[in-house]
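Thread title: Can someone regenerate the structure for this chain?

I was given the following input by a collaborator and told the matching structure tokens would be attached. They weren't. Posting the sequence so someone can regenerate them.
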Amino acid sequence: MSIRSDQQINVKGLSCPMPVIKTRQAMNGLHEGQVLEVQATDQGSLADLKAWAESVGNQYIGVLKKNGVLFHYLRKCGGENEKEKTFQPTIANEAILERAANGSLILDVREEAEYAFGHIEGAKSIPLGELEERMNELDPNQEILVICHTGTRSDLAAKKLVEKGFKKVWNVLPGMCAWNGPLIKKI
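Best answer:
Regenerated them for you:
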């Protein structure tokens, strides 16, 4: 099946946050109602692009999989070049272990494989794509420190949690890409 799109971009071989960054740039060049096809190989893009589109008011139409490539379709909605709002508050990597020792939950929203190859001790793994259906595993009254690789997925996850009534949510920056502490591996 072929789906008509007004523009196509190739982000194959790129991982978070690059598919979102490249998609954002391409969407800025489209007019309202136009459709963008994003060709990706990063499985994380399944959750990332959908969450990003929803967070800025664009429509995530869906995804097709063919020969290991994900073909995402997004429709431009809203005003021209809408400005994204980043989630506040944020917290630095260096502060999270002390907070966790005092009862805060470190929520790792990276993909399962990323988590398995190295995560912070005690962190709970809920990939961004599963967050909606697994929110019942989280205490809305507990302070939650959301972390990913670079701060992009955690930004989207933090916004989602607050939308669902969670009050004490922090986005950890810059995330696991700059983590200098000990790592636990599940492999």
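The domain at 7-75 is CATH 3.30.110.40 (Translation Initiation Factor IF3).
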